[in-house]
Amino acid sequence: MGARRAGKDKATGADTDRRIGRRALLIGGTAAAAGTAVLARDELARLWWRAPGVEKPRKEGEVDYTGARWLAASDANWRRADRPDDYGIDMVVVHVTQGSFDSAVKVFQDPGHGAAAHYIVGKDGTIAQMIRELDVAYHAGNRDYNERSVGIEHEGFVDRPQDFTAEMYKSSARLTARICARYDIPVDREHIIGHVEVPGTDHTDPGEHWDWDRYMQLVRQARTTSA
């Protein structure tokens, strides 16, 4: 806003110059300083977790989602990180395995495969976690998207709508809702996307038979329930 001109209101004689009192100025300055301090602290935390040799405590076999079972992917298919402190997480990427649950586990444990997702969801609703959400999974085919997302594979084939069962949709939706709650990710199609929507990818999953309207409704319901 432009500065107000000092003087008297002709009708009331009141001061039209609304000068900021010393107390208000001090409070405002304190608030600004506090805000700056918070930003500085957050940036310092990011730098700390990016420092070589520094990483968050981990327990072998620990999962991020209750109900998931741990099946470790080959460490050649992901890299260690300390998300969300070093890389913010603001996206979930939906994949389809183009194979069975077991075959997906097998290739993600193969060091020569070069790719793996954080989770696999089976047709029966079973969830396996293969990479910690802390870490960057090689799942999206795009480094930026890998660093900022959690990848969820779904058992089945893109051209077989019968593979996308009610149990799978519900189980996956609860998982996605929990991830969105944990990292304050908006539940919308800008932040919950298919692999086909990742820039530079040559994949088509989850394909035309994946029911996005149904899935997003289930995620919203699960998100509301968990909140």
Average of the residue pLDDT scores: 84
Strand content: 5-15%
Uncertain spans, ≥5 residues at pLDDT below 50? 1-32
Molecular shape: globular
Radius of gyration: 24 Å
The largest sheet has its strands arranged as: 1-5-4-7-3-8
Number of helices: 5
- The percentage helix is 25-40%
Fold and architecture overview:
Strand 4 and strand 5 form a beta hairpin. Helix 4 packs across helix 5. Helix content is 33%, strand content 11%. The strands form two sheets. It has a six-stranded mixed β-sheet with strand order 1-5-4-7-3-8, with helices on both faces. Strands 2-6 form a two-stranded antiparallel ribbon. With 227 residues, it is an alpha/beta fold.
Quick take:
The chain has five helices and eight strands, in the order H-E-E-E-H-E-E-E-H-E-H-E-H. It has helices at 22-50, 101-108, 143-148, 166-183, 212-226; strands at residues 69-70, 78-79, 91-94, 119-121, 127-129, 136-137, 149-154, 192-194.
